[in-house]
C-alpha cells in the first residue's frame, strides 16, 4: 500500500535533477504533488512524466524570493490539491565563485536571497496551514558549506548554514503543534548546478575540487535523497526533526541510531560542549 496516499506534497525546484526525482518519488508513494519552479517548461515535463506513470501532479511557476508569488502559489495548491502536508525546499542558486573580494556583490547576494529568503518564504506560507491542521513536515535541502568552510563558495555556504539554523529554529517553534522540520544534504549529485561549476572558467579556476571528486567516483544518485525524503514524509524519522539527515545515509542504520543521536544532540549546528560552556 502506498504510504503517502493522503499527502499533498510541494517540491520547489522540481523541474530537473534532485527536485524532479523527489517529486517522482512522492508521486510513486501516492502523494498529490505540486511542482514549483521559475521555468514552466521543466516543471511541465516533470508533471507529464508523473502523470504518465499514473500519478497526480500540477505545475506552478513562481519566484520563491517573491513572497506574494509564494502566497499565491500556496492558495492555488489548496484549491487544486488540498492543504499542504509536506514542503520540500529544493530550489537553489550557486552563481558566485571565488574569494569574496572577486565576487560580484549582486550575484553573491542573489545566491543568498534565492536560497535563504526563498526557503523562509515557503516555510512562512506553509507553517500556518500545517499548524492549523496539527500536522505537517518541512524538508529544507542544505549542502556544501553547511557545517564547514567553503572559501570560494561563500555566498552559497552562508545561505546553506543559515538554512540549517532556520530549520532548527522552525522546528523548535512548531514541533509542539506536530509540525516538524528537517534538513537534508543530498550529497554531491551531478546536476545543472554542478555542471556549471565544472564547465565555466570561474568554476574551473575556483572549484577544481568538484571535478576531482567526480573523477574519484563521488557521484551520489538523486534517488538517495528522494527515498530519504519519502521516509521523512511517512514519519520514519520524526524523532530526528530539527537535525541533518544525508542522502548517503544508510536509512536502516540511521533509524537504529536515533536514540544515540538525540542523546548526543548530534546532527545539529552547534559549538562543541566545551565552547558552549565558555559562552
TrEMBL record:
Domain of life of the source: Bacteria
InterPro entries on file: NAD(P)-bd_dom_sf, SDR_fam
One Pfam family in the UniProt entry: adh_short
Coiled coil: none
Family stated for the protein in its record: Belongs to the short-chain dehydrogenases/reductases (SDR) family.
Protein name, entry field: NAD(P)-dependent dehydrogenase (Short-subunit alcohol dehydrogenase family)
Species per Swiss-Prot/TrEMBL record: Rhizobium aquaticum
Lineage of source species: Bacteria, Pseudomonadati, Pseudomonadota, Alphaproteobacteria, Hyphomicrobiales
Amino acid at each position: 500500500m502506498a504510504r503517502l496516499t493522503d499527502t499533498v506534497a510541494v517540491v520547489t525546484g522540481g523541474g530537473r535533477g534532485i527536485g524532479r526525482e523527489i517529486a517522482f518519488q512522492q508521486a510513486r508513494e501516492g502523494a498529490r504533488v505540486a511542482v514549483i519552479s521559475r521555468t514552466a517548461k521543466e516543471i511541465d515535463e516533470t508533471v507529464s512524466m508523473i502523470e504518465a506513470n499514473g500519478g497526480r501532479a500540477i505545475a506552478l511557476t513562481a519566484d520563491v524570493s517573491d513572497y506574494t508569488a509564494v502566497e499565491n502559489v500556496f492558495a492555488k495548491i489548496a484549491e487544486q490539491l488540498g492543504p499542504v502536508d509536506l514542503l520540500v525546499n529544493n530550489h537553489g542558486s550557486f552563481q558566485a565563485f571565488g574569494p569574496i573580494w572577486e565576487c560580484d556583490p549582486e550575484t553573491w547576494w542573489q545566491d543568498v536571497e534565492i536560497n535563504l529568503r526563498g526557503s523562509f518564504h515557503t516555510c512562512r506560507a506553509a507553517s500556518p496551514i500545517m499548524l492549523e491542521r496539527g500536522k505537517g513536515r518541512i524538508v529544507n535541502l542544505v549542502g556544501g558549506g553547511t557545517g564547514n568552510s567553503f572559501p570560494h563558495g561563500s555566498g552559497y555556504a552562508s545561505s546553506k548554514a543559515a538554512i540549517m539554523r532556520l530549520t532548527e529554529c522552525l522546528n523548535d517553534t512548531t514541533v509542539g503543534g506536530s509540525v516538524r522540520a528537517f534538513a537534508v544534504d543530498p550529497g554531491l549529485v551531478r546536476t545543472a548546478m554542478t555542471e556549471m561549476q565544472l564547465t565555466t572558467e570561474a568554476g574551473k579556476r575556483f572549484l577544481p575540487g568538484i571535478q576531482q571528486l567526480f573523477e574519484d567516483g563521488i557521484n551520489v544518485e538523486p534517488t538517495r535523497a528522494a527515498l530519504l525524503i519519502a521516509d521523512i514524509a511517512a514519519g520514519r524519522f520524526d524523532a530526528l526533526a530539527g537535525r541533518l539527515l544525508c542522502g548517503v545515509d544508510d536509512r536502516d542504520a540511521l533509524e537504529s541510531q536515533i536514540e544515540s543521536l538525540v542523546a548526543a544532540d548530534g546532527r545539529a549546528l552547534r559549538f562543541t560542549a566545551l565552547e558552549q560552556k565558555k559562552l
